[in-house]
Amino acid sequence: MELRRLGTSGLKVSVFSLGAMTFGESETFMKGVTSPDDEARRVFDRAIDAGMNLVDTANVYSEGRSEELTGKWLEGKRNRVLLATKCRFPIGFGTKGLKPGPYEQGLSRQHIMRACEDSLKRLNTDVIDLYQVHMQDTSVAIDETLRALDDLVRQGKVRYIGCSNYTGYRLVESLWSADKRNTARFECVQLQWSLAVRDAEREMLPACKAFGLGTLIWSPLARGFLSGKYKRNEPPPAGTRLEAWKDSLRAMDNDRCWAIVDALRSLAEKHDTTPSAVALAWLLARSETTSIIVGARTVAQLDENLAAEQVRLDPSDIQQLDAVSKPDWGYPYSFIGVREPW
Fold first, then answer.
1. Average pLDDT, the chain
2. Which residues are within 8 A (CB) of 154 and not within 5 positions of it... i.e. 6 or more apart?
3. What is the DSSP code string of 262-276?
4. So what's the pLDDT on residue 56?
5. Is residue 168 part of a domain?
6. Which domain holds residue 207?
C-alpha cells in the first residue's frame, strides 16, 4: 500500500488507515453500530495484512473498550503498526446519570496528562505514535494545552501530536504558539471530508497545505451515504448506520447529495467498481490527502473500500465529481470573486 509522509514528521503512513471506532460494544453515541468482537478482530487482521500501518482510536470509543481491544490485538504486531489515539471528551458521556467533572474532559493540563496515562494502560503500550486532541477547547489557553502535549513528547510517552475538529483560526493560532514558545507542534489534522461534506476546503485544507500539516480524513463516505446503498424516498436498509443516525440522513436528503450519489453510480459502472471506491478514489487523487480513515464493520466492507486504491479516475471524472458536489462557498469568497477557496 502506498505510504505518504505525515506533515513534517518522520512518520510515513498508509493511504488508508484503520478506524477503530466500531471496536467494542458501546452504550453511547456508537450504540448499535459497532461490530461484534470476533468480526472486529477479523477486520483488524485483514487491514494489517493489506498494508495499513496506522490504527486510529480514541479513549471515548466504546467507553475505552476500543483502546483495550486495539492494544490486545496489537500484541506481536506493534513494530508494524503506528498507534494513534485521542483525548478531549469524558469517557461514558451520554450514559444515564453521568455528570463529568471539570477535569474529566477538556484540554487542560490536568486532564491531558491523566487521559494519556489511562490510554497507555488500555493500549498496553509504552508510547503513542500520534496523540491527538479530539476537538478544540476554547475554555483553555492554547499555550497550556501545547505545553502539556510537549511534556508528553519530551517524556517519551508520545512521539507526535495532532488535532482534530479544529477551526482554521484555532489551528493557525496553535501553530503560532508552538513556534513562539518552541513546543511540539501539531503535525496533522483529522477532519471530516467527503464529496458530500466539503467544508474543510474553505479554511482547514488550505491552512494544512500552507503550513505543511498532514491530513487524516474521517467519514470519507459521509457515514456510508456515498456507498450507494441508500435510495431517494426509500427508508434506509435495516442495520445500516444511517438507520440509527436518522439526523445525519436527513441532513443529506437533498438534491445536491442525491446528485452526487447518481454521479458515483454512473462512474462506478464506467470503471467496473463500486460507488464507495469511486468516492474514495476522488479523495486519494487530492494532493491534500495524507490518509483516509476507514471504519469498516465487516471484512467485506473493508475490502470494498480498499478497492479504491486500484481505481484511476481520469480528469473528466474528477471534473464531473467536483462540479456536482461543489458547495456554495459563501462569504468572503463570493465577495472577492475566488472560484475555489484553495
1. 93
2. none
3. HHHHHHHHHTTS-HH
4. 98
5. yes
6. 3-223+284-310
For the cut 90, the answer to whether the pLDDT of residue 110 exceeds it is yes
Q: What is the structure's pLDDT at 287?
A: 95
Q: Could you tell me the CATH number of the domain that includes residue 141?
A: 3.20.20.100
102 located within any domain:
yes
According to the model, what pLDDT value does residue 215 have? Answer: 98
Please answer whether residues 175 and 211 qualify as being in contact, where contact means their C-beta atoms are separated by less than 8 angstroms.
yes
Count H helices and E strands in the chain, helices first: 13, 10
Assign 86 to helix, strand or coil: strand
* pLDDT given for residue 97 in this prediction: 60
Calculate the alpha carbon distances from 184 to 9, 29, 181, 217, 289 in Å.
11, 32, 9, 22, 22
Q: What is the pLDDT of residue 231?
A: 86
Number of structural domains found in the chain: 1
Res 134 pLDDT > 90: yes
User: 274: which 3 cell numbers?
Assistant: 463500486
Active site residue 61: yes
Residues 52 and 17 sit within 8 Å (Cβ to Cβ): yes
Per the residue annotation, which of 61, 131, 166, 230 is the catalytic one?
61
User: Quick one: DSSP state of residue 328?
Assistant: -
DSSP structure string for 154-192: HTTSEEEEEEES--HHHHHHHHHHHHHHT---EEEEEEE
Mean pLDDT in residue range 89-104: 73
Residue of higher predicted confidence among 245 and 331: 331
